[in-house]
Specification:
The chain is of the alpha/beta class and 223 residues long. Helices cover 48% and strands 16% of the residues. The model has no long low-confidence stretch (mean pLDDT 94). The structure holds cytidine-5'-monophosphate. Its EC number is 2.7.4.25.
């Protein structure tokens, strides 16, 4: 029997993480944060001073990551690399920027593909990313593409960073969001596009609860 999967794709900051976590909790399913795989690869690349131009060395790193995801309090997940907790480090600005660059490399994506597919185990999986519905799980019965205006996404990130005590201007955030969107959308390898059969939701001005209700309703209809 195939494992039920809901894919949640879309640009950064649209609320995919919140939606995926809520869906996984509601349904009692596992969760794949595929962005974390690209972030951890970027972390290892930066930590080992590997040039961002050396695709084969980076793909080699990606295929040998000694990585563990450990569920932590309040829906957070601890990310361990060789036993070291790097959960905060992979969210840094330098890691985010490097992650977006390594994610554009075909050999790196290929190196991470099987690891992602192995996460599809009973009772079900919510897979969060950019290419979950188009490349990694093309047969998933429910595919969501969650988007929001770049301004709304920048404001959201701004609030999150301020709450964490980090200071960054809204204008600067908007600029980096637009730069990463362009890289994700225009790359040759697994570009960010909705699957042809995706349920597209624009979350601009809509509450997270209302988005969750819409997706849960669809999930029940497709059971
Ligand atoms: O989702 P998150 O921001 O953590 O992802 C980090 C980076 O990894 C993104 O900038 C995106 O370029 C890349 N990514 C990807 N494919 C995925 C998930 C993330 O290319 N499935």
């Amino acid at each position: 029997m195939s494992v039920p999967i809901i894919t949640v794709d879309g640009p950064g900051g649209a609320g995919k993480g919140t939606l995926s976590y809520s869906l996984a909790s509601e349904l009692g399913w596992g969760m794949l944060d595929s962005g974390a795989l690209y972030r951890v690869t970027a972390f290892a690349v930066l930590a080992n001073d590997v040039p961002l131009s050396d695709e084969s060395a980076i793909a080699n790193i990606a295929s040998h990551l000694a990585l563990e995801f450990v569920p932590a309090a309040e829906g957070l997940t601890q990310v361990l690399l060789n036993g070291q907790d790097i959960s905060l480090a992979i969210r840094s600005e330098s890691c985010s920027s490097a992650a977006s660059k390594v994610a554009a490399m075909g050999d790196v994506r290929a190196a991470l593909l099987e690891r992602q597919r192995q996460m599809a185990v009973a009772p079900g999986l919510v897979a969060d990313g950019r290419d979950m519905g188009t490349v990694v799980f093309p047969d998933a019965p429910l595919k969501v593409f969650l988007t929001a205006s770049a301004e709304a996404r920048a404001e959201r990130r701004h609030r999150q960073l301020l709450a964490k005590g980090e200071s960054v201007t809204l204008a600067r955030l908007l600029e980096t969001i637009e730069e990463r969107d362009a890289r994700d959308r225009n790359r040759t390898e697994s570009p960010l596009v909705p699957a042809t059969d995706a349920l597209v939701i624009d979350s601009t001005g809509i509450s997270a609860d209302s988005v969750l209700d819409t997706v849960l309703r669809e999930a029940r209809l497709r059971k």
